[in-house]
Amino acid sequence: MNMQTYQQPDVHGYYGRFGGAYIPEMLHPNVEELQSRYLEIMQEPSFQLEFRDLLRDYVGRPTPLYFAKRLSAAYGTNIYLKREDLCHTGAHKINNTIGQILLAQKLGKNRIIAETGAGQHGVATATVCALKGVECIVYMGEKDIERQAPNVARMRMLGAKVVAATSGSKTLKDATNEAIRDWINNPSDTHYIIGSVVGPHPYPDMVARFQSVISEETRWQLKEKTGSELPTHVIACVGGGSNAAGAFYHFLDELSVQLVAVEAAGHGVNSGLSAATTALGKPGVLHGSKSLVMQTEDGQVVEPHSISAGLDYPGIGPLHANLFDSGRGQFLAVTDEDALRAAFDVARTEGIIPALETAHAFSALSQLSLKATDQVVICLSGRGDKDLATYMKQMEMMGI
Amino acid sequence: MSRIQTLFQQKHKRVLNVYCTAGYPELNSTLPVMESLQANRADLIELGMPYSDPLADGPVIQQSSAIALENGMTIARLFEQLEGFRDRITVPVILMGYMNPVLQYGFERFCADAARVGVDGLILPDLPEYEFETEYGAIIRKYGLDFIFLVTPETAEQRVKKLDKLSSGFLYAVSSSSTTGSNKQMNSVQDYLQRLESYQLKNPVLVGFGIKDRESFDAACAHANGAIIGTAYIKALEGAKDVGTATKEFLSTIV
Ligand SMILES: Cc1ncc(COP(=O)(O)O)c(C=O)c1O
Known about the structure:
The complex is a heterodimer of chains A (400) and B (255).
Chain A: E1 14-15, E2 18-19, H1 28-43, H2 45-59, E3 65-67, H3 69-75, E4 78-82, H4 93-106, E5 111-116, H5 120-132, E6 135-141, H6 142-147, H7 149-157, E7 161-165, H8 172-185, E8 190-193, H9 203-211, H10 213-226, E9 233-237, H11 242-248, E10 258-266, H12 277-280, E11 282-286, E12 289-293, H13 318-326, E13 329-335, H14 336-350, H15 356-363, E14 375-379, H16 388-398
Parallel strand pairs in A: 4-14, 5-6, 5-8, 6-7, 9-10, 9-14, 10-13
Antiparallel strand pairs in A: 1-2, 3-4, 11-12
Chain B: H1 3-10, E1 15-21, H2 30-39, E2 44-48, H3 59-70, H4 75-82, E3 93-96, H5 99-105, H6 107-117, E4 121-123, H7 129-142, E5 146-147, E6 150-151, H8 157-166, E7 171-174, H9 189-198, E8 205-208, H10 214-222, E9 226-229, H11 231-237, H12 243-252
Parallel strand pairs in B: 1-2, 1-9, 2-3, 3-4, 4-5, 6-7, 7-8, 8-9
Helix pairs in contact in B: 2-12
EC number (chain A): 4.2.1.20
Protein name (chain A): Tryptophan synthase beta chain
Pfam family, one (chain A): PALP
């Protein structure tokens, strides 16, 4: 393994033993075109200029790094929140979709497809397609369409066509399969905007680079506030792992910084209803890359469970599989119940209602022994508006 | 010489390869289906190993995979079913499937068991050529199995030649960029197949995807060594009372 960096894969897309591009030949021309052109396009001054302008004026970057005073006091440490919830559309997902829509235009593609689970990535994709006047088709599991109605409505209002994935378990994994099948059937005019650091090379690296703006800003913002660019801990939730990849990126090779990745334990890691991929997964191939995959002994991919649709995925990006494998990252798992509790805690100590996904990252605070001198950054990946129905049910149960 | 190579030495034209899903329609249909394919003039059998996430397949083969999995089909069970099948079946047999279940079974163990029971070749559409060359190709060859790569109308000349070189047995020419069972028009398929012909490839070429009746079979055979039928046959088995009769009826419309 290349010990110099945890940041970048080798030319074949491998992070240690994970990554690659396990795709059928039908996808080869598109994936090959991306592999050979993404770095060059991303480095073009005209691309950089438009990307930076849109992140500033349209997304609202830089997002604040906020010192959470009451939360810090509660845990006896120093906690900074990287406010991705304040991005346009309410989550970090748009950092990636802005980048990919510009890339798609450079490649001359005029039809965009995407998959979505909770609908956040679907909304972020529909948004940038509206911004650029490009056709947008979003695949979403039939079950998720039912449980995420407000985001489905947002996508439709933005002009996207939402197509129900009716195969398999009818959730995110199957929506991703359908998007890939669409791409196979539309080889020339279509770009697939994948929503996380998953998929065949170069997607994991490309999405990580677009999201890396999170840690790029964190470094100088932390320096302004504390005099040091380096925190002791960075904590982020992991579904596929894009907000975590972005929050970790510029700290990956700073070995003094502890990287804490938080997965969804669902009803409990060993309950049979969980999405804790590093705890339960084995090396395998899913959606075009080799990584850790939750699967049966016979190699059939299993349906995970998490209360948060965005973490309800049986795989994890190869960058993270390598952080787990090498020990560079610390992987924790948080149950549905603990995540819900954390969401209410944060709401009441800081006046911020986090997304259910993000609530998992907050809950990890109680699993770490943090010192008064520690500087902890939490990636506040999204806001909780989309999860209000779940939160309302919880309040009913708690008698609020 | 492998069983597949021997077949193509004896027959260069209108070679018929039929795809079926192992464990479909019933768990124990695998062998009866294979026997009836051989009895009704299939020259080769492509046996699909069911997978939960078959990316390159359309709804019909997806559904057959899901049913086979519900029936309890696994790779281990498939090798049990195939134990001794060479007493009854002489046509070449190729296993088709996706990487994940094979990796989970153990790649080398898989190749060893396949060779031991009498399987002749493998099609793993999501095994890329880089990994084939650096890791898996040597294992496949060690057990004397043929490995068949896919090419599509979008595959560039240099790459077709490279994939032909890496393949043995035959080359799988996908008729149009699509998942299996699509109804895409095969208008330009002749140009594409003539182009492949002009490359003077080392392997015979079989055309697959969208071959569903005599007309499409004839069209595919005009400039290739034969064709592969999948979805249309799976449909013919759907709800069939007797796989033997269904197979006979279906194949009589083709050859
Ligand atoms: C707010 C929020 N955080 C996190 C995630 C999980 O995705 P990732 O692991 O790629 O950051 C999602 C996905 O929908 C999300 O909406």
